Structures are given as structure tokens and as C-alpha cells.
């Protein structure tokens, strides 16, 4: 079975989070595989980090179940490469069964949440709607070339309440840790030979949030560290833990959280920073219906860097610089005559008041408010006071 985590009996009729993770790091019929080579490999090989990435996402979810907006109910996991006891490989048959069971779980409560995380090889056709995820048995020589591939758009469409599934979870997160390089050398209509996961109907009224986070733009690849994980998963976890720049926001009840919109803003910054040392071009993009839902809560406000750039009238360092929190309590006092890079400190995100006293002439005092939600520089210019 693909089911590796199950709290449905405990939750009863309450809503929960239902997760499907599929990672393919071993393709016997692609380049460097250990089986007969497919009649067309598209130059694709073995995405070694994919298996570890899939296992990592399972671990993260299990460790952070208390931070999800509704309790973690199920995790279904398929992994090819780095096989572990009790975990099924990500073949076409196993994938179809797992997605069917995942869909059935999504029907348990309309206030439930679904996660889909795919990592491995894929093919992008010229139409943005035709992005085919390749399963372990791709290229086995049975049936059409793309028989052991699934069209991602079919999965997303098949989870729509417009099909008449009124009880289906209305909050759906799709994480596609897949490259989107074009399928060259084959007819553009070959995508039709990929396997449909669900029956789909003509589009109807949509009232779900179905946010799709792609690891790359159309035409780009997705990368990772051979002995580690995908860069996409590194960036995603940074965001979900609130350490990525600007991703943490406050919910209506005052708790800090990561929303679908703030994730979108922080994802690319993290991914760009992680890939820059390797000179890779990989840009996270989003599509679908993004309505500002909450992916997870944080244990508290994130700790961020705060820099105070003080420009005094005579160029001398200020006499004192103090930082006060929203309760007007002094949380940091810089050393006397501190200036430049010395006026840099890490503080929890929030609203602060900065009090600066100029050394001379006259020891003028300036107070400024700062809303800090990510790395922030507050400039105080005494010439403009």
C-alpha cells in the first residue's frame, strides 16, 4: 500500500489534510538506467535527488502536523530509487491506485486540505496545459511511448468540485518539483497518449483554492544536489518554516503563518539564492487559483535582520540608538557611538519604534516606526528632519 500515515479513525468526520507524494529517482529505461533503453529518452537520465526529496517531504509533514490549519490525516507515498521497506515504487499502476484513494479521502470533508507533491522527470509540450509527469516504468516498450506518463493538468482538473463532487476539499496545494523542458523530436499531439488519472468534465463553477507551484518556468529544468535534495524542496521548506524573506504574515487571529500569496512572493527569492552559486537558471512560478489561504502556522514571529542607516548632520555617529517593541519596551540598545554596519541586529518580526539621539549639535532626537516582516533597512536622515 502507498498509505504510510493514517489518522482518519481518530479524526472521524472532522476535516484533515490528505497528502500524496510521488518521487521517481530511478528510471530503468532512460539514460544510465539498468533496463532496456526506451525508444526515445529525450536526453533524460536519473534524477537522483528525487527519492530523498520525496522522503524528506513526508518527514517534514509528520514533524509539523500541529502547524497545519487542520490536522494531518493521511500521507500516501510512492518512491522509486533508494527503495525502503514498505514503500511502493512509483509505477503507473501504483500511481493510479494512490491517486484514486487520495481523491476518495479528499471527498471526506469540503473543509479539508489536499497536498500533491511530484518530483522526478517530466516532459513539457508547447501548450502550457500539457505537462507530463513520467513514472518509473516510462519507456518499457508496452503501448504508446507516453503511456507510463500522466498529464498533470488532468489531475488538477479531476480534483475539481465542478465534476459534481460537492464534498471535495476546497483547499488544494500542488507542488510540482519538475523541470519543464520541451519534448523535442516527437509530434506535439503525443501528449494525448499519456494516461489520464481522472475523468474530467467541461469547466464549471469553481469555488476551490487550487494553487499550483511550479519548480521552473516553461522551457527550464529543475535541479538539485546529487547527494542531497532538490533546490525546490530546500526553498519550499525555508518558506514553510518562515525563514525565507517576506513569507511570514499574520493571520486574522494574530498568529504568524504562511499564506498562499506570501509563499508565492518568498519562493522565488529563496530559490534564486540557493541556485546562484551553481549559476543555474531556475525560476519558481505559480498558477491556478490563489486565494490567500493558510498553508501552515509558525511557532512565532520569524527572526529577521534589521539595519538602521543613520545620516547625521555632521557625519558623526549618533549618541544613542534604541529599539522599542509594540509594548514600548526597549529590546535593544546599541553601543555608544555605533554607526554603519554596527547598527544591525536580528529581531522577531513585528512593529518597532527606533529612537536616535544625535551627538551634536543640540542632541536632536528622532523617533521612527518600522514594520518588519523580512530583512529591513530603516533610513533616518537628520538633514530631512
Fold and architecture overview:
The radius of gyration is 25 Å and the shape is elongated. The protein is built from six helices and 20 strands. Helix content is 17%, strand content 30%. The chain has two domains: 295 residues, 3-Layer(aba) Sandwich (Rossmann fold); 82 residues, Immunoglobulin-like (Sandwich). Helix 5 packs across helix 6. The longest helix is centred in the last third of the chain and has 16 residues. Strands 1-3-2-4-8-9-12 form a seven-stranded mixed beta sheet, sandwiched between helices. It has a four-stranded antiparallel beta sheet with strand order 16-15-18-19, with no helix packed on it. It has a three-stranded antiparallel beta sheet with strand order 5-6-7. It is of the alpha/beta class.
Key terms for this structure?
385 residues; alpha/beta; Rossmann fold; Immunoglobulin-like; 2 domains; 7-stranded mixed β-sheet; 4-stranded antiparallel β-sheet; 20 strands; elongated
Strand order of the largest sheet: 1-3-2-4-8-9-12
Summarize the main sheet: 7 strands, mixed
DSSP E strands, number: 20
How many domains in all?
Answer: 2
Number of helices: 6
Q: Termini separation (Å)?
A: 68 Å
User: Unreliable runs, pLDDT <50, ≥5 residues?
Assistant: none
CATH architecture verdict of the largest domain: 3-Layer(aba) Sandwich
CATH topology name of the largest domain, in short, is: Rossmann fold
In terms of structural class, how would the helical and strand content be classed? alpha/beta
Strand content: 25-35%
Give the C-level CATH assignment of the largest domain.
Alpha Beta
Mean pLDDT score, rounded? 91
Q: What is the quaternary state of this protein? A: single chain
Amino acid at each position: 500500500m502507498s498509505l504510510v500515515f493514517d489518522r482518519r479513525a481518530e479524526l472521524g468526520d472532522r476535516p484533515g489534510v490528505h497528502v500524496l507524494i510521488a518521487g521517481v529517482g530511478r528510471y530503468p529505461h532512460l539514460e544510465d538506467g539498468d533496463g532496456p533503453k526506451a525508444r526515445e529518452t529525450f536526453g533524460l537520465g536519473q534524477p537522483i535527488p528525487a527519492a530523498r526529496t520525496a522522503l524528506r517531504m513526508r518527514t517534514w509533514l509528520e514533524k509539523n502536523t500541529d502547524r497545519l490549519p487542520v490536522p494531518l490525516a493521511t500521507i500516501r507515498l510512492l518512491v522509486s530509487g533508494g527503495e525502503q521497506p514498505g514503500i511502493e515504487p512509483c509505477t503507473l499502476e501504483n500511481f493510479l491506485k494512490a491517486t484514486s484513494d487520495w481523491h476518495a479521502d479528499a471527498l471526506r470533508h469540503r473543509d479539508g486540505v489536499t497536498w500533491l507533491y511530484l518530483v522526478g522527470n517530466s516532459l513539457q509540450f508547447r501548450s502550457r496545459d500539457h505537462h507530463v509527469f513520467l513514472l518509473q516504468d516510462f519507456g518499457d516498450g508496452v503501448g504508446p511511448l507516453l503511456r507510463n506518463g500522466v498529464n498533470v493538468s488532468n489531475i488538477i482538473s479531476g480534483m475539481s468540485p465542478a465534476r459534481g463532487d460537492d464534498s471535495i476539499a476546497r483547499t488544494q496545494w500542488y507542488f510540482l518539483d519538475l523541470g519543464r523542458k520541451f519534448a523535442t523530436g516527437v509530434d506535439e499531439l503525443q501528449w494525448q497518449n499519456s494516461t489520464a488519472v481522472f475523468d474530467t468534465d467541461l469547466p464549471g463553477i469553481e469555488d476551490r483554492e487550487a494553487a499550483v507551484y511550479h519548480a521552473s518556468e516553461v522551457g527550464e529544468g529543475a535541479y538539485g544536489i546529487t547527494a542531497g535534495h532538490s533546490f525546490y524542496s530546500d526553498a519550499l521548506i525555508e518558506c514553510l518554516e518562515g525563514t525565507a524573506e517576506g513569507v511570514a504574515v499574520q493571520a486574522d487571529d494574530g498568529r504568524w503563518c504562511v499564506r498562499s500569496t506570501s509563499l508565492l512572493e518568498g519562493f522565488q527569492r529563496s530559490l534564486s539564492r540557493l541556485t546562484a552559486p551553481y549559476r543555474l537558471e531556475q525560476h519558481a512560478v505559480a498558477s491556478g487559483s490563489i486565494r490567500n489561504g493558510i498553508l501552515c502556522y509558525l511557532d512565532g514571529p520569524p527572526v529577521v535582520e534589521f539595519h538602521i542607516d543613520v545620516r547625521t548632520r555632521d557625519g558623526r555617529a549618533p549618541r544613542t540608538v534604541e529599539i522599542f517593541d509594540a509594548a514600548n519596551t526597549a529590546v535593544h540598545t546599541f553601543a555608544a557611538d555605533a554607526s554603519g554596519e554596527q547598527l544591525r541586529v536580528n529581531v522577531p518580526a513585528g512593529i518597532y519604534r527606533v529612537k536616535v539621539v544625535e551627538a551634536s549639535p543640540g542632541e536632536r532626537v528622532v523617533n521612527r516606526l518600522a514594520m518588519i516582516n523580512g530583512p529591513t533597512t530603516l533610513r533616518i536622515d537628520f538633514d530631512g528632519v
